[in-house]
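Try it yourself: sequence plus cytidine-5'-triphosphate, in.
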Amino acid sequence: MRIVLGVGGGIAAYKSASLLRLFTEAGHNVSVIPTEASTKFVGAATWEALSGNRVSGSVFDEVEKVNHVRLGHEADLIVVAPATADLLARAASGQANDLLTNTLLMARGPVLFAPAMHTEMWSHPATRANVDTLRSRGVLVMEPGVGRLTGTDSGAGRLPDPKDIFAAAMAAAAPPQDQAALSGPLHGKTVTVTAGGTREPLDPVRFLGNRSSGKQGAALARAALDAGAQVRFIAAHMDIPAPEGVELTRVETALELREAVHAAAPGSDVLIMAAAVADFRPDTHSDTKIKKRDDGTDPVITLVRNPDILAEAVQRRTAAAGSTAAETGHKPLPALIVGFAAETGDGDADVLDYGRQKLKRKGCDLLVLNRVGSSLVFGQDSTEVTLLSPRDSADTVPLTFTGSKTEVARRIIARVAQELEAALPVR
Ligand code: CTP
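Structure, out:
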């Protein structure tokens, strides 16, 4: 495949060298087009050596080859990484003031932007509008990662991991969704799925984590894609790769997950909280490794509560109820919010009782109750779940499914589609 890799002027430009490597190692022919600003971070020689192709960002080099027309026309895929706020603005307004923006205007194949900038720039209304404009034209704009940024700040704005950009690029260049997905029950719907386990850092090398493998969340995302949905996938630590075809945001901690969920929820029809979120985090985080002390005293770790992201998502929806999206200026919040509960019980009735209590406490529209034991659920391929709804009456026998995580995910998504139909006003 012929790929154009556009490189914007941000500190993350160096990470595009790994992305270029992934493309060339997979056998693709890559032409790199850096913006002038980006060459202050990484010079053209690096791109020429790694791609094996001539590199220029100017429309006035090799004029006889008409590069400003040819590169865009010939490309099967254009990937821009890092996409700065300036590049997104220039692309959205259709400017053609360098070779990269000319090439974007000539594109015939899919175009993918992988943004990187400071959180304030990413959340600025100007950038939001530019991203919406690009997306409305069918351009793919990835969600940036959440985490440490260039200065002392942290938040949404990190360049997504090169492996994730590579996966998104390959999915973008893959043939369009098959017919089954186009007629699936979630076609035209957006589903946000969280998956994996959060990690709460103690120092640069240690963290508090959990055993979540991310398999159930990945299976749910896959099932939602198969049902025709667009999937925003927010991945904490996972043992397996994220499914192809999702809009991926990587996070590490519960606070980063919270930020990503509240950014993805507006405009989503469904929110599925399958991630195992740490209920507590260390109250301090050491910037240097915690060492054994000569005086023989041992460190004491104090934990503080993390916010309950699921309960917050429900509260935000309740607070917004009554005002229309047009009045608040925000996109509508999910009509269906699905929680998970991993419970151990003293017997069947107790597990169900704990599940019902949790459903009430969290206020969600559907609760997927997992029975956990030493070998059940975490990391396993098969699972048993019971679905609880606040609409169940006291004598309803709740639905229970047993099977592989893939099969169970399909059943959950089928129920989600049913509940969504019941929850949404008839249009
Ligand atoms: N969850 C969340 N934020 C948290 C903890 C959990 O959004 N800080 C979500 C999980 O993603 C899951 C659901 O809440 O969908 C249930 O998580 P669980 O840890 O079982 O619930 P807790 O409220 O922690 O209950 P418990 O008192 O049993 O620990």
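One thing you can check immediately is this: The chain is about 35% helix and 20% strand.
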